[in-house]
Structure formats: structure tokens, C-alpha cells
């Protein structure tokens, strides 16, 4: 009430209801890293939406592929027809996977991809005579999706607690966050101590009840691009093998070049048993996700009566055509390499900003999955109380300055206080510099 809204802005009585994020401009059009609002302003998309638009907006190759597919067939139900789009994309994806991960199950998003992994893991356990195993250990904080299964393994109680009576909450271990804990202990030793918590949790729960461990190879928005290194991931793999537990990598955010490799796990040469992918997969052009599994596991599940899971839109030809063009764009233009090079340039800029602004406690990340952590006090890494959340204020200021950065509204302070700086992988050096200038302007305004 009392707030005048321009005609181009969402009216107070919009029929949509999303989380309260204030009033946002209507989108007019977007290309590359730029988004034009109907308010006449141009915004730099330094969030890639929500770490989605890896190949930039209005990418001509993707649009062409979608247009061509649309003119042939927009929908063909997967149990009635095969589609070249789905078969072709699956073949290209398998080529990019570690050896052995050679079967693809398409879905329409990240939560569905995680859900597919959880249900597949359970059916694999039953098929192999290990029906007592059903627990999935995960980390806290973490984010694996909003459906009830994915939420049960999500380590973020403000989101999951209301639903605990409707699902079976799963055991959690701490996500290593070196920057929070004084940062004096050797980083690898610190991370290894955290990896060993997995073994403790397995023993505590009873190894014959534990089915899988699910992990984001680089932490997403809930932790702000936390990167435990090679020793951590290798130790996790070792522990899973020791107890016959499946290792599920949630590469929904990290996959398709985002961290400077097609899969983040390539940085550490650790091969999981199952992979969940989405977001950058069809890069915002269409809803697409996938579970990747080894054929030796798939065979067991199919032989035991089939994989009892699926969604109507799975393998949608338009989504798969988009995904295929995106994957080719990432591979042929080597956008993973660009993510490494531009990521290094951006990180150097963020480090300089940390020097300049004492309320930046940490900058971190891998490739173009980066975060800036705000603190009230660098010594203790204490963050401001949630109502003073610096990230939330910075996001609004940056909007004014024509810069879009990502943040997750933190509830109860479990997720710290950070923004994600995750532009499309197509970003150029000049655009990185503009991004850093606009971010600096925003930080100056935040300091006032
Ligand atoms: N896993 C991870 C790591 C994610 O970042 C997300 C989305 N932020 C999801 C799963 C859920 O994906 P979606 O929102 O597409 O369901």
C-alpha cells in the first residue's frame, strides 16, 4: 500500500506467488551476458540466472537447434517413440563421462535428477540383496533440491524441518568450511578430518543400513562455493568403497563446465557411482536434467523388474535438442577453459576487493563458481544477524547498478552471508572487468 508501481513492474496483486524478493523488472530480452528489462535498463547477468545460463542468453546455435526440433516434433512420449535428440544427447554425454558411467536417465530439473539417483540407489540395493540399506548420508549445509526426497538429504534445517514428519530425515556430516574455523589448520588436513566424519557416521548408523553418500563436489549456494580439494574427495571415495556405499555426485550446479572442467570431479579424478546433472545442461533454454549411471548397475535394476521411476516430460525432444547444442557449444568452444581463464581474472579482482573492504571475510571458488563472504568481524568470521544480511542488501544495490548477482536468503544464519558471482562461461575479459567495476561500486554503496 502506498507504493506506486510503474506499469512495467509486477503489480502488488500479481497472480504469481514466489518468495518475497521485492519488485523486479519485467524481462524484455537478453543476449550473451546482458539482460534488458522493460524498465529500459540493461543488467549484466553475473549470476547466469541461478548458475544456469552457461552459454549465455540467446545463443544462436542453441536457438537454431531448438527451432529445427520444434518444426519436426515438439513432443514424443518416451515409451512410445525414441528420439534422435534424446539418443544423440545421451551418446554425447556418455562420451564426456568417466569410463563406466554409460547410461543416461533424463528428467526435467535438478531435484528430479537427485530424486532419480536416490530411488535408483534404493532399487539397486534391493536388486542386489541389500534391502536393509536405505540411509543416505549427506552434508550440512548443503542443497540437493526441493522435492521431499531431495529435501531429506538437504542439509538446511529451515527448509527441511517443517517436512520432517512427512519424510525420513537422513544423517548429516559437517561440510568442511575452512575459512570459518580460523583458517590456521592445514587445509588438506582439515578437509580430511571432515571426510573421516563419513566413516564415523557410517559406523554410528550401522554399515548395513547405509546405502549412499551424496555430495556437491563444490558447495553450491548453501555454502558459497566451498572447494575441498583432491585428498578430501579421494578419502570420501575410499570410505564409500570400504563399506560398499554408493557415492552420488550432485553436479547439478557444478556440471557442464562451470568449475573449469566438464564435471567438477575431473579436477580430482574421483569417479562417483551416480551423477545428477541439470542447470547448465540445457543452460536455461529448456528444463532438463539427468541421472548418469553405470550399465552394470542399470542391468541389475532392470533385471530385477525395472526402474520404478519416471516423469512424463523426461527426454523431451526440444529440451534434449537444446541440451545437445549446449554441450557441443561448451565442448567445441572449450568454455571450460574459458571458465578457468576468466575465473582466474575474476578471482584476482575479488581478492583485490577483499583487500579494500574489511567486511569481506573470504573470497573463494573454482572456475566461474565463485563466492564473496561478508562478515561483521574478520577475526572471528562472525556474520551479521540475518536481519542485517549484507548479501541481501548488496543484491539490491547491485540491481540498481545494473549487476545481477546470486544469493540465497539465509534463514537462521546457517548458510553464512554470501553472494555468488557466477557469470556465463562465455564471458570476455572486458566483461569481467565491467563486472568487477560494478561490484566495486556496489560495495562502496554498501559501506555507506
Ligand atoms: N542440487 C543442487 C546442487 C542445486 O544447486 C540445485 C538447485 N539450486 C538442485 C539440486 C535442485 O535443482 P532444481 O532447482 O532444478 O530442482
TrEMBL record:
Superkingdom field? Bacteria
Q: A Pfam family name for this chain?
A: Aminotran_3
Q: What is the required cofactor set for this protein?
A: pyridoxal 5'-phosphate
Q: Which InterPro entries match?
A: Aminotrans_3, Aminotrans_3_PPA_site, PyrdxlP-dep_Trfase, PyrdxlP-dep_Trfase_major, PyrdxlP-dep_Trfase_small
Q: Please verify whether the record's keywords include Endoplasmic reticulum.
A: no
Q: Which CDD domains match?
A: OAT_like
- Keyword terms, alphabetized: Aminotransferase, Pyridoxal phosphate, Transferase
**Molecular function in Gene Ontology:** pyridoxal phosphate binding; transaminase activity
Q: In which family does this protein belong, per the annotation? A: Belongs to the class-III pyridoxal-phosphate-dependent aminotransferase family.
| The name this protein goes by in its record | Adenosylmethionine-8-amino-7-oxononanoate aminotransferase
This protein's species is Caenispirillum salinarum AK4
Amino acid at each position: 500500500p502506498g507504493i506506486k508501481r510503474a506499469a512495467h513492474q509486477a503489480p502488488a496483486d500479481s497472480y504469481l506467488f514466489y518468495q518475497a524478493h521485492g519488485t523486479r523488472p519485467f524481462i524484455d530480452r537478453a543476449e550473451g551476458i546482458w539482460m534488458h528489462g522493460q524498465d529500459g535498463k540493461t543488467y549484466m547477468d553475473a549470476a547466469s540466472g541461478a548458475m544456469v545460463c552457461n552459454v549465455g542468453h540467446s545463443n544462436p546455435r542453441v536457438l537454431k537447434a531448438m527451432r529445427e526440433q520444434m518444426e519436426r516434433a515438439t513432443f514424443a512420449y518416451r515409451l512410445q517413440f525414441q528420439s534422435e535428440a534424446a539418443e544423440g544427447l545421451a551418446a554425447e554425454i556418455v562420451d564426456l563421462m568417466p569410463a563406466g558411467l554409460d547410461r543416461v536417465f533424463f528428467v526435467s530439473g535438478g531435484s528430479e535428477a537427485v530424486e532419480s539417483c536416490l530411488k535408483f540407489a534404493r532399487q539397486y540395493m534391493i536388486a542386489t540383496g541389500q534391502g536393509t540399506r536405505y540411509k543416505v548420508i549427506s552434508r550440512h549445509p548443503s542443497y540437493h533440491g526441493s522435492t521431499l526426497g531431495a529435501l531429506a538429504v538437504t542439509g538446511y534445517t529451515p527448509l527441511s524441518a517443517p517436512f520432517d514428519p512427512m519424510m525420513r530425515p537422513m544423517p548429516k556430516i559437517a561440510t568442511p568450511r575452512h575459512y570459518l574455523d580460523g583458517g590456521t589448520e592445514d587445509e588438506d588436513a582439515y578437509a580430511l578430518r571432515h571426510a573421516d566424519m563419513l566413516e564415523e557416521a557410517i559406523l554410528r548408523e550401522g554399515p548395513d543400513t547405509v546405502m549412499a553418500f551424496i555430495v556437491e563436489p563444490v558447495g553450491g549456494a548453501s555454502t558459497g562455493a566451498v572447494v575441498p580439494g583432491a585428498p578430501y574427495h579421494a578419502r570420501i571415495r575410499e570410505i564409500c568403497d570400504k563399506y560398499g556405499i554408493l557415492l552420488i555426485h550432485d553436479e547439478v550446479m557444478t556440471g557442464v563446465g562451470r568449475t573449469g572442467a566438464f564435471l567438477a570431479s575431473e579436477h580430482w579424478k574421483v569417479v562417483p557411482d551416480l551423477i545428477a546433472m541439470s542447470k547448465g545442461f540445457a543452460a536455461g533454454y529448456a528444463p532438463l536434467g539427468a541421472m548418469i549411471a553405470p550399465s552394470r548397475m542399470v542391468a541389475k535394476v532392470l533385471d530385477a523388474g525395472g526402474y520404478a521411476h519416471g516423469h512424463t516430460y523426461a527426454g523431451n525432444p526440444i529440451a534434449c535438442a537444446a541440451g545437445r547444442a549446449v554441450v557441443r557449444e561448451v565442448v567445441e568452444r572449450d568454455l571450460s577453459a574459458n571458465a578457468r581463464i576468466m575465473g582466474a581474472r575474476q578471482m584476482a579482482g575479488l581478492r583485490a576487493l577483499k583487500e579494500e573492504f574489511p567486511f569481506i571475510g573470504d573470497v573463494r571458488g573454482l572456475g566461474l563458481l565463485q563466492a564473496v563472504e561478508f562478515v561483521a568481524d574478520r577475526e572471528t568470521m562472525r556474520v551479521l544477524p540475518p536481519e542485517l544480511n549484507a548479501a541481501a542488501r548488496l543484491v539490491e544495490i547491485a540491481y540498481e547498478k545494473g549487476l545481477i548477482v546470486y544469493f540465497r536468503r539465509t534463514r537462521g544464519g546457517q548458510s553464512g552471508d554470501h553472494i555468488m558471482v557466477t557469470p556465463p562461461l562465455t564471458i570476455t575479459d572486458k566483461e569481467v572487468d565491467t563486472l568487477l567495476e560494478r561490484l566495486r561500486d556496489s560495495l562502496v554503496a554498501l559501506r555507506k
